[in-house]
Amino acid sequence: PLCLLTLLLPPLGLGAPISPAEPISQAYSLALYMQKNTSTLLQTYLQCQGSPFSDPGFSAPELQLSSLPPAAVSFKTWHALNDRERLSCAQGAFLALTQHLQLVGDDQSDLNPGSPILLAQLGAARLRAQGLLGNMAAIMTALGLPIPPEEDTLGLVPFGASAFERKCRGYVVTREYGHWTDRAVRDLALLKAKYPG
User: Fold this and answer.
1) CA–CA separation, 92 and 106 (whole Å)
2) What is the model's pTM?
3) 100 is in which domain, residue-wise?
């Protein structure tokens, strides 16, 4: 009878929570690595677009995309976020960024086919953003948080967009990729301190 009882009990390992320390550490390392490459990506992108993008000191903070959440947020607002909100924001942003980086890569294949370095950097950025998405999903699972469903963040893309409009779109995407990576490093540093290995 005792043997029968042990067969009916669920195995202990199945419901045991996974420590979030390891996925947090992996995500933090990847985000730091990404951070080292974001300014290079933006500079390469701007240099390949011609004037006014390649002009010294070019910056257009007023340019935004409605399909891409801006990373900028006041310190007070950011600090008040809980783990779930912080991770959900980052998850949504990097999901949007992977889709937007694919679009920018396609645009640049058409606009700058002779720039293999830029195309390779855009492809690498997209793969890293996907990797960070996977890491964040692992963190959310370990913390028992629901993972937001994947969405089509691009919506309807104007395929008749002019070359200048596509260059502007790519500028916003590569700039926001850098800003979101910086924010992810800060988010993950907080989590790392909260859940030491």
Assistant:
1) 22
2) 0.87
3) 20-54+63-194
* CB of 132 closer than 8 Å to CB of 34: yes
CA nearest 187: which of 18, 34, 19? 34
pLDDT, tens digit, 9 for 90 and up, residues 23-54: 999 999 999 999 999 999 999 999 999 999 99
**Would the CA dihedral through 41, 148, 132, 197 be positive or negative?**
positive
What are the angstrom distances between the C-alpha of 21 and each of 81, 148, 160, 169, 183?
20, 21, 47, 37, 19
Residues 6+ apart with CB under 8 A from 52: 58
User: What does the block give as tokens for 5?
Assistant: 């009882």
CATH of the domain at 85: 1.20.1250.10
In the structure encoding, which two tokens stand for residue 94, read together?
Answer: 């990097």
